[in-house]
Design goal:
Elements (H helix, E strand, L loop, with lengths): L10 H11 L25 H12 L7 H6 L3 H29 L4 H47 L6 H4 L6 H18 L9 H18 L42 H9 L2 H10 L5 H30 L8 H7 L4 H34 L6 H21 L3 H28 L7 H30 L1
Helix pairs in contact: 1-4, 1-10, 2-8, 2-10, 2-11, 4-9, 4-10, 4-11, 4-15, 5-7, 5-13, 5-14, 5-15, 7-13, 7-14, 8-11, 8-13, 9-15, 13-14, 15-16
Keywords: Amino-acid transport, Cell membrane, Disulfide bond, Membrane, Transmembrane, Transmembrane helix, Transport
GO molecular function, one term: L-glutamine transmembrane transporter activity
Main location: membrane
Amino acid sequence: MIMFQNENSNPTIQTSCTVAAVEERDSESTPLLRNAAGAEEHTGASFCSSVLNLMNAIMGSGILGLAYAMANTGILGFCILLLLVSCLASYSIHLLLKLCDQAAITSYEDLGLKTFQRPGKIMVASTILIQNIGAMSSYMFIIKSELPAAIASFLNPEPSWHVWSAWYLDGRTLLMLVTLCVVLPLAMLPRIGFLSYSSSVAFLFMVYFSIVVVIKKWSIPCPLPQNQTIPLISQFNNSSDPECTPKLFVISSRSAYAIPTMAFSFLCHTAVLPIYCELHRPTKKKMQYVANVGISLSFLIYLVSALFGYLTFYEHVESELLLGYNRYLPRDVVVMSVRCAILLAVLLTIPLIHFPARKAVVMLIRGDRPFSWPCHVVVTIVLLAVVLLLAIYVPDIRNVFGVVGSTTSTCLLFVYPGLFYLRISGDPLKSPQAISAVALVVFGVLVGLLSLCVIIVTWAQE
């Protein structure tokens, strides 16, 4: 992994970070991008805990869609693209940290304010809002698809067609019940400090999921059996059937989902500056090491889970990887455990993602005016209603990864860091750093627009 180095930090930003760190961390008046997960005392977070916090911000539902991306780009194609996106993510963090020290700014939306005044802050806040709505929709889609399978796996004997039509096995009904009974009460709270460690738990569950994907590669035969489950006590060896031959490069209309899904999966930039502020004795060089290590470890976990997921199902891999295991290993104890773990992680993470999304809406509507319960309640309900409708009516999670990844994710990951650097840094346009920033912006715009256009054309054809 490419390591971007930085010089020592400006003491101005350390003072700004110290002031921000001692503020109340989970109220509506804190900075929009303050990361509630893994917050440390204002004495500062260690290097290891900062790496874990950053990996918590990186890893999410995107890990479930990367095997599908590999199936539609090939093993080598996927590795090249994943390495490219991860390196560009590291470089864009390098630009953000440099601006952070230069302008003494501790949040992403304040960079927008510094660059384009209030319209810039509104632009960044709106982008973060849409990104978080997409992330919540992907999590709720997982509940819709996985909760019925989890309930069915505990039923004995195996559910008949009549039982599958029951309300407690209907994904949409269960999603609405879970939203009303669990997500809404948690999201309604103005403070979410007691959920501050749930993202760490979710991260551990994602690592556990990756381990299960590796283990279960040898539990499913190739070619895949048609319309039947696999006995738990049976052992299979993958055959030499042409269908079971991995492809190194694949190009198709579905390849357009690859980079957006990767951008969606590596987006952590809204959490970088708060983590920088919480770092013990923060310097740009130290924080860049944190970013490089966090991105490198996430790259490794993503690559392993995608590779073994692809080598299990090959061209039949689902856009949401767990669905394949539901079909062929519905009563496998390990698969049941990872399914329950993912569902628990999702339930705990949605309120945390909802929190900054709601703060973005409140900031756009009310500005800096004092907290208002009526506004708080209305915004919470409207946001959850929008997310719920998206999760119910969007037919495939790849659509969420594709659209959100090609628009807001590419903006936050590539376009905005380069654009902000060009406006704030004052470097000559012909300098190497400015040329790199221009290339980052151009790459983000071209890839985002091209991917979005191909995805829309694919929808029209289907």
